[in-house]
Each structure stands twice: as structure tokens, then as C-alpha cells.
Amino acid sequence: MTKNNAMILDDLAVFETPCRRYFDALAGSTTTSFINSRRIFHGRGQCFARWEWCTVDVFAPVVLLTVFATPPPAQLAAAVACIKQYLPQALPFFAVQRRDMHGAPYFWEQGNREDLPQVVAQRGNQQYRLDFNQQNCGYFLDMEPGRVWLEGVVAAKAKTGGAKVLNLFAYTCAFSVVAIDAGASDVVNVDLSRRSLTVGRENHRLNNHDTQKVKFLGVDILKSWGKIKKMGPYDAVIVDPPSFQKGSFVATKDYQKVVRRLPELLSPGGQVLACLNAPEFSSDYLKDLFAEQAPALTFIERLKPSADFPDIDTEQQLKLLVYRASESLINAS
Asked: In which element (H, E) is residue 110 found?
């Protein structure tokens, strides 16, 4: 055995322990409620030396090992063998997604892709369709603090007629599902990808929602402010853009264009959840944008990240900042 291989095996316990703990607990559980959609190993936060290249997620019946940076072959082989060793019967499918390769392909290590049933992310009683043919399977686990925040905002408003929610960069409309489930009166989803919005419609139908309360706009947000504003004002606005998407959105030049429009979209006392998932930008980057482009909005808090996503530097984690409009806000016509 080479020195490098010996080091990899010595370090394997760092990866093995949380995976084995979860799989053993699942195997010993007497109820299916233990099976949920969650991250069971988060190496990307650099809290685990030499395991920064990967994460492990469970979307029953699938276990997904995602590779973000090419590891030593022996280390990847050890990680795959470790998961296969402890997989319980309740999780018969195991895939490795290579984000370090062109096209981010999936390699099925256990179970045949052709035999895979329709997989959903499970959040309490809510379900969200997943697609393991796409780079992003359709549901972001680290956004849970934002979903909890939205539930609270909508539930509080439900007592006085219901909240109107604007979901910008809606993707597959998970925030929309949460809002309707919590009692929102109306939700407007906006995304350039009509394909993603189609999945969003399916997610609402999957959760037995009245889709007459939900609108889906497949437009370029940066060119559609008139249409978006006309459907408002909104009690809650979600801004969750990609940090870089060639041809549609680049945070360094486009986020400010969104922020400056927010005051005219909000109802008095309306709130904004501004999201940014880019390790290279700190929360101060967003705060400065709001101070410059939307000084009428007041910073309330940064939501605490999920404990399943530890990071050596909190400023590299997902940023979720809450802002509020004044109760005396008057929207420009």
C-alpha cells in the first residue's frame, strides 16, 4: 500500500462516520418517517480535511454522492465502497454525480437507472419532483431556513386575508409550494426557463394545490418589470438568482438591477428574502447593494444556515438576508 493510499484509509472515518450513523439508524427504524430528504455529509464547507470535494444527500430511495472537484482515484473508490457497504434496503439506488466532468453526468453504482421510480424530495407532507438527468436535480436542501421563514410570513398574513408572494428566479417553484401550503392568497413565479416552470406546475399538482392561485411567467425578469409590478404589490418577495448564468444573470452586474426595483413591488410592511449562493461574495456585498439601490428598505436579519451544511467560514455559506419596507411605504406609480 502506498503512503497516499494509507492516508486516505486513515481519513475515511471522517466520511464514514456520519454516513454509517444515518444508514444504521435508518435500518433500525420501525417507521418510514425516518426516511427524509437531507444532506448527511457536507464536505464543501471545508470542515473535514481532504473531503472538501464531495457531499452526500439522501432522496429516498436514492443516495447521491456529488463530486465537485476531482479527488484522488483511491479516495473516490473508498467513498463509493463505504456507501455501498452500509446502504440499507430502504435505499436501493446509489448514484455518483461528477460535477467535475463536462455535463455533470450521473454514474449509477447500485440499482439500474431504468428501474428508478419517480423520485420526490420530501418536506413534511410536501413533495417535489426530482430529475437525475439534470445538473441540479430540482430541490435545494440548503434553502430550508428560507422556506421556514416564508411559512412564518405567509401564516401571519393569512389571518388578515392572505399574503401575495412574488417568487423571482423561481426554478421549480419550491417557494411557491411552501407559500400556498402556508395559506398564501396568490403567488407569482417568474423564471426565464419555461421548462423549470412546467416542473413547478407539476409540483403544485403533486401537492393537490389550487393552481388558480398560482401564476407562472416564463420571461426575462430584467426586461419584465412592468408586467411583474402590475400583478403586485407583494407582501413577500423572494430573490434567489444564480450567481452566474451566462446570457441571463451575472450577480456582479445584474443583482443591483433587481434590488433597485424592490421598493416599488412591495406592499407597506412587505418583506424581501434576498439570497446569494456564491462563496466569493460576503453578506456585506448584499448589504451594500441594498444600501445603495434600495435605502428605503430596512435590514432585519440574516437567517441562520442549516446545521446540515457546516462551513469553516460563515461568509462562504448561502446568504439569506431579510429586508422590510416601511409600513408607510408609498409605491411609485
From this structure: strand 106-110
* Segment holding 11, helix H or strand E: helix 3-27
Q: Give, rounded to a whole angstrom, the gap between the first and last alpha carbons of the chain.
A: 73
Each residue's pLDDT tens digit, 114-150: 999 999 999 999 999 999 998 999 999 999 999 999 9
In the numeric block, which cell numbers belong to residue 230?
A: 402590475
Q: 173-186: per-residue pLDDT in tens? A: 999 999 999 999 99
| Amino acid at position 132, single letter | F
Nearest-Å Rg of the Cα atoms of the chain is 21
226: burial class by Cβ within 10 Å (0-12, 13-18, 19+)? exposed
> Are the CB atoms for 274 and 239 separated by under 8 Å?
yes
* CA distance linking residue 234 with residue 10, whole number of Å: 54
Whether 294 and 259 have beta carbons less than 8 Å apart is answered as yes
Q: Are 228 and 166 in contact (CB under 8 A)?
A: yes
Specify the length of the chain in residues. Answer: 333
Contact assessment for residue 206 and residue 173, using Cβ atoms and an 8 Å cutoff:
no
Q: Which residues on neighbouring strands pair with residue 215, listed in sequence order?
A: 188
Three-state secondary-structure class, residue 96? strand
Q: How many CB atoms lie under 10 A from the CB of residue 197?
A: 22
Average pLDDT for residues 307-319, to the nearest whole number? Answer: 93
Q: Whole-angstrom Cα distance, residue 94 to residue 71?
A: 19
CA 276 – CA 278 distance, rounded (Å): 6
Q: Give the residue from 122, 158, 159 showing the smallest Cα distance to 141.
A: 122
| Exposure of 22 in the CB half-sphere (CA atoms within 13 A) | 24
What order of strands is seen across the sheet that includes strand 319-324? 214-217, 186-190, 164-168, 234-239, 266-276, 319-324, 298-302
Place of cell 411559512: 151
Q: How far apart are CA 303 and CA 162, in angstroms?
A: 23
Instruction: Provide the grid cell at 216.
Output: 407562472
Q: Are 83 and 20 contacting, i.e. CB atoms less than 8 angstroms apart? A: no
